[in-house]
Amino acid sequence: xxxxxxxxxxxxxxxxxxxxxxxxxxxxxxxxxxxxxxxxxxxxxxxxxxxxxxxxxxxxxxxxxxxxxxxxxxxxxxxxxxxxxxxxxxxxxxxxxxxxxxxxxxxxxxxxxxxxxxxxxxxxxxxxxxxxxxxxxxxxxxxxxxxxxxxxxxxxxxxxxxxxxxxxxxxxxxxxxxxxxxxxxxxxxxxxxxxx
Length: 196
Hints:
Layout: H1 2-19, H2 21-33, E1 35-40, H3 46-63, H4 73-82, H5 84-97, E2 104-113, E3 116-117, E4 122-123, E5 126-135, E6 142-148, H6 158-164, H7 167-173, H8 180-194
Parallel strand pairs: 1-5
Antiparallel strand pairs: 1-6, 2-5, 3-4
Helix pairs in contact: 2-7, 3-5
């Protein structure tokens, strides 16, 4: 009897995964079409966390103009790489403006992100290309969002999301934040990372 119960549970899991394949495909497409931004604070002190948010605001606001008329993520990546020194200067200037002297490092690379829930959208877990800005030791809590297309909090409208994402991607980011499929995507991404 136990054998049949185990087989039934396995069959339900497999059926659930198969039903979620279109969702998984849209999540995979999303990881291929967006450029994330990741800002690491020096520490978890209140001052360093506040500074991180100021750097975030400055970088997201001033860099958004880089992507005007951008034709896709590959172009956005090239633009970002070409502006890394400027991004470091922007962040450094903001840090100095607040009376700190932390070094700043900006880089572009592929990074793993957990599922993140924002006010109006959700970004599923996965490996994304991202701009990472590290402030000082980079040992504090971090902040992340989407640099291209611009979906960062306060920077995107639903119309912009509809214009920049295909239908499947749009359905993913606007899914109910308690959608169990996001947890399945996280498990799937963790499993994939074991084999890398």
